[in-house]
Amino acid sequence: MTTWVETPGEGRERGPVGIGRAWVDVLVRPRGFFRNGVVPGDQAPGLVFAVVVAFAFVATRFLLVPGSVPAIQGGPVLSATLALLAVCLLIAPATLHLTAAIQTLLLMALVTDRAGVSETVQTVAYATAPCALAGIPVPELRALCAAYGAFLLAVGLSEVHDTSLVRAAVAAAVPGALVFGYAFGGFGAVVSVARAWALI
């Protein structure tokens, strides 16, 4: 589950250009992306992609949301640097693989003939694409990013594991809630939007 496949396979292109292309492709052409860009035993591009998305999310919050930098030590710059390192090196990879493990167990219960664990890791990773923008302090945007990420997860599971969209959505409900509802703040954003609308 935690294996990083170093040898490039037939999945996504490596490097900054590959990450950028993957980000655009998964947002604009998700079915084709998950059908062609997710391959067995090629987790490294997906893991790097998820780390970059997490970095963008946290770094944007640190820059645009006053008081969001945790007080660790040595002032705000050092605190932000240490927090970003923790996110990129520990929190994002661990969260990705934990979520993929939960997702795999749910798929085992719901889908008989399914793809492997590596493909599930990649699917969860690439589904986070919209959340690169979720750090911008606009509740409506964050709610939209989280909702689209959850949709991408269901679409990706449907394509990668060759199952119906309804069954994939059921399997993705809990992992989607954990990643997009809690980790990327989707639930809080929806509550903020609902309260704002109630005041109008």
Structural summary, described in words:
The chain has helices at 15-28, 30-37, 43-64, 75-110, 117-127, 139-160, 165-183, 186-199. The protein is mainly α and 200 residues long. The protein has one domain (15-199). Helix 2 (30-37) crosses helix 6 (139-160), helix 3 packs parallel to helix 5 (117-127) and helix 4 runs antiparallel to helix 7. The radius of gyration is 17 Å and the shape is globular. Residues 1-8 have low confidence and may be disordered. This is Yip1 domain-containing protein.
Number of strands: 0
* Range of helix content: over 70%
Return the average pLDDT rounded to an integer: 89
Distance between the termini: 48 Å
Shape: globular
Low-pLDDT segments, ≥5 res: 1-8
| Sheet of most strands | none
Q: Can I get a quick summary?
A:
73% of the residues lie in helices and 0% in strands. With 200 residues, it is mostly helical.
